[in-house]
């Protein structure tokens, strides 16, 4: 159940690629422990929205606040980013999981988990090892700890990617279509791991085409089309009684 602390606040976000607007004044808020599902047609700007949150893309206008701290501030209609130190501090609180798992192929599963805590956070191995092992147990991957990623199924690799992100103890997890590259039978394990995280009160934004997950694991759903948020609602209302025509026709196609 979400509480009232605002973890993410995006206000009036604009982003263009080659003068073509992709985000057209997006505003949203995510509260602590909220699971926000972002759905919408291909090209509507969902991935760009997430990528702007973790600075893989920069915004042109608007502001982004994470846990009350400005990552980017609106200044005369333009976005002005915080200094590098502040950015690093803010970004250290968020981890992102991608469609392609992006594991280090030359490292074992365990080494993948330990890499960032050891070399980004400068933690000691005896501090982080028990955390990593516990995460591997939780995601059902403990017996794979010494395997290389190429030996794992896509679903297992994605669960490693999630465990690796969690090893950084983030307050916020961003998921960009985490099951889209997986065969349907492999999505279940990944979605179950995400459901478990949601039950443990992790604050999450999940860009997904998995309507089942959005319906029963999300606390709120937004529908994006053409760079705008068209509709935002609680999952039950969103799926049983969408208000906007574009949402209705999207859902009709997706739930066919
Ligand atoms: N780096 C880039 N350079 C140029 N155009 C881009 C870039 N990244 C995204 N776009 C364009 O921005 C628009 C939105 O893309 P985005 O990936 O955010 O959509 P999406 O809703 O996540 O789509 P999908 O569901 O297919 O992943 C698309 O028209 C895309 O071609």
TrEMBL record:
PROSITE patterns listed in its UniProt record? ABC_TRANSPORTER_1, ABC_TRANSPORTER_2
Q: Which GO terms describe its molecular function?
A: ATP binding
Limits of the ABC transporter domain: 8-251
Entries under SMART domains matching the protein: AAA
Q: Keywords for this entry? A: ATP-binding, Nucleotide-binding, Transport
A Pfam entry, by short name: ABC_tran
User: Known Gene3D superfamilies for this protein?
Assistant: P-loop containing nucleotide triphosphate hydrolases
- The organism's place on the tree of life at top rank: Bacteria
Q: Which PANTHER family match?
A: AMINO ACID IMPORT ATP-BINDING PROTEIN, ARGININE TRANSPORT ATP-BINDING PROTEIN ARTM
Question: This chain belongs to which protein, by name?
Answer: Polar amino acid transport system ATP-binding protein
């Amino acid at each position: 159940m979400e509480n009232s602390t605002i973890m993410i606040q995006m206000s009036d976000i604009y982003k263009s690629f080659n003068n073509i607007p992709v985000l057209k004044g997006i505003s949203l808020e995510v509260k602590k422990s909220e699971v926000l599902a972002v759905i919408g047609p291909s090209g509507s700007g969902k991935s760009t929205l997430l990528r702007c949150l973790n600075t893989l893309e920069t915004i042109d206008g608007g502001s982004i606040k994470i846990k009350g701290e400005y990552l980017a501030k609106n200044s005369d209609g333009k976005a002005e980013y915080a200094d590098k130190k502040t950015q690093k501090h803010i970004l250290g609180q968020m981890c992102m999981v991608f469609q392609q798992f992006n594991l280090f192929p030359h490292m074992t599963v365990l080494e993948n988990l330990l890499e960032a805590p050891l070399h980004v956070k400068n933690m000691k191995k005896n501090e982080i090892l028990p955390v990593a092992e516990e995460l591997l147990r939780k995601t059902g991957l403990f017996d794979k700890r010494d395997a290389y990623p190429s030996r794992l199924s896509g679903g297992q690799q994605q669960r490693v990617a999630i465990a690796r992100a969690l090893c950084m103890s983030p307050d916020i997890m961003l998921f960009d279509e985490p099951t889209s590259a997986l065969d349907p039978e492999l999505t279940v394990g990944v979605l179950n791991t995400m459901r478990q995280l949601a039950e443990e009160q992790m604050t999450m934004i999940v860009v997904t085409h998995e309507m089942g997950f959005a319906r029963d694991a999300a606390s709120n759903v937004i529908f994006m089309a053409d760079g705008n948020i068209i509709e935002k609602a609680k999952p039950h209302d969103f799926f049983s009684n969408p208000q906007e025509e574009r949402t209705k026709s999207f859902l009709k196609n997706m739930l066919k």
